[in-house]
């Protein structure tokens, strides 16, 4: 029963996240007048605010009901993020980007606290012996729905470009924001096993005393710094630099999602036989190959290269995200899990914040280069980052995750 509720809760959540994120987030920001640096900042802020989870992990030890706090913070996130669709109807045009960034930042500060609570709660709800398989099936179902929304949203924006198209997309978003919040009322408020430490500092240093956890976390933080230089900006490059239409970008993302769905199921089943860290390692070269495959457009049709890149990205990033989640809730002590999750989220959040910011700044600089160097922003930068990722994987990554 509880697992069914957790799955149904994800239905309105995935619709909302699909229509507000990914290529639609980039497209909406471009419509509002944002440049590559603004887009990089918005994509980065969602991870930077994860630093707040450290304080939230300590504060959680004092709350009586995780369910009530989950409703408060997740509900605030859903309402504020969906409310960004009203910006063009309320504020002067010169304020649009600034207001969006402000509302978006507050929404995701609330979301990072809600996500901290949800991770703790869902870790107690889902039995450890079925955790890998359950999340594989849950993610497959939800991403199937997400792929339909992606394709439909792309058709809408191509048929109704600009204000009308985004208004149509925001109508189901507003409905799902309310529905998603309501379903959280049906979550069980299971007992919370609190930390054995009462003092913040002692609680905080426990993850740093676990050498295996710390080495893996620091490596993954460095990896995400490099990965987020380009992967979050894939949609920006396709829409703004390669001038590919929304429907095609949506179709490419749908293919990525379909592959990710199959990947969730496969990675979930493999997780029953192999450790989280071992499987995490094998997702890394797949993500690197996704970046390298952009180079194929130097001698092949652009769309073939992009489809191949996103197929590899679906396999790699889908597995990475699922296994990183299982690593934080499965390879950590139950009573100290909130702080372990918070430290992982904070360290990876800082580097995932810097990555898109730096990537957006670099793309902005590349826009001023001559046409003879346009290939660098189109695919050269991605290939260079992919090479660095492969080297990092089979040197430091092999020592940290496999040994």
Provide a concise account of the structure shown.
The protein has 403 residues and is mainly α.
Helix content, binned percent: over 70%
Shape: globular
* CA(first)-CA(last) distance: 39 Å
The CATH class name reads Mainly Alpha
Number of helices: 17
Percent strand equals under 5%
Biggest sheet statistics: none
Task: Please tell me the overall pLDDT.
Answer: 85
Domain module count: 1
Instruction: Point out poorly predicted stretches.
Output: none
SS-based structural class? mainly alpha
- Going by CATH, what is the homologous superfamily? MFS general substrate transporter like domains
Q: What is the chain-wise order of helices and strands?
A: HHHHHHHHHHHHHHHHH
CATH topology: the name is Growth Hormone, Chain: A
CATH architecture type: Up-down Bundle
Radius of gyration: 21 Å
What would you say this structure looks like, in words?
The protein is mostly helical and 403 residues long. It has one domain: Growth Hormone, Chain: A (Up-down Bundle). 79% of the residues lie in helices and 0% in strands. It has helices at 2-20, 22-32, 36-48, 52-60, 66-83, 87-90, 96-125, 131-159, 163-183, 200-209, 211-227, 234-241, 246-270, 276-292, 302-330, 337-366, 374-402.
């Amino acid at each position: 029963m509880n697992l069914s509720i957790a799955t149904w809760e994800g239905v309105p959540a995935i619709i909302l996240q699909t229509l507000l994120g990914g290529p639609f987030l980039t497209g909406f920001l471009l419509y509002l007048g944002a440049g590559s640096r603004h887009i990089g900042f918005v994509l980065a802020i969602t991870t930077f605010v994860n630093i707040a989870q450290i304080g939230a992990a300590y504060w959680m030890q004092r709350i009586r009901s995780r369910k009530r706090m989950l409703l408060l913070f997740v509900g605030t996130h859903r309402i504020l993020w969906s409310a960004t669709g009203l910006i063009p109807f309320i504020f002067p045009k010169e304020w649009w980007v600034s207001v969006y960034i402000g509302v978006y930042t507050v929404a995701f500060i609330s979301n990072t606290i809600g996500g901290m609570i949800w991770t703790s709660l869902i870790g107690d709800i889902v039995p450890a012996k079925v955790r890998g398989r359950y999340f594989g099936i849950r993610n497959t179902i939800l991403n199937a729905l997400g792929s339909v929304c992606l394709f439909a949203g792309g058709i809408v924006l191509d048929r109704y470009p600009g204000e009308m198209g985004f208004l149509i997309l925001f109508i189901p978003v507003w409905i799902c924001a309310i529905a998603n919040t309501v379903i959280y009322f049906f979550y069980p408020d299971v007992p919370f096993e609190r930390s054995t430490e009462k003092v913040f500092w002692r609680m905080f240093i426990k993850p740093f005393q676990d050498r295996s956890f710390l080495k893996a976390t620091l490596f993954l933080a460095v990896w995400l710094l490099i990965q987020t230089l380009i992967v979050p900006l894939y949609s920006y490059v396709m829409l703004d630099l390669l001038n590919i239409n929304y429907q095609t970008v949506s179709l490419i993302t749908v293919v990525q999602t379909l592959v990710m769905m199959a990947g969730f199921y496969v990675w979930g089943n493999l997780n029953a036989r192999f450790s989280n860290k071992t499987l995490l390692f094998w997702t890394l070269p797949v993500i690197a190959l996704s970046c390298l495959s952009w180079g194929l457009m130097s001698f092949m049709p652009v769309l073939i290269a992009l489809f191949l890149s996103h197929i590899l990205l679906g396999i790699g990033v889908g597995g990475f995200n699922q296994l990183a989640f299982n690593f934080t809730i499965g390879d950590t002590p139950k009573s100290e899990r909130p702080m372990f999750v918070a430290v992982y989220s904070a360290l990876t959040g800082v580097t995932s914040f810097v990555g898109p910011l730096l990537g957006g700044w670099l793309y902005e600089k590349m826009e001023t280069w001559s046409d003879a160097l346009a290939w660098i922003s189109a695919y050269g930068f991605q290939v260079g980052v992919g090479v660095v990722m492969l080297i990092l994987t089979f040197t430091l990554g092999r020592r940290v995750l496999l040994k």
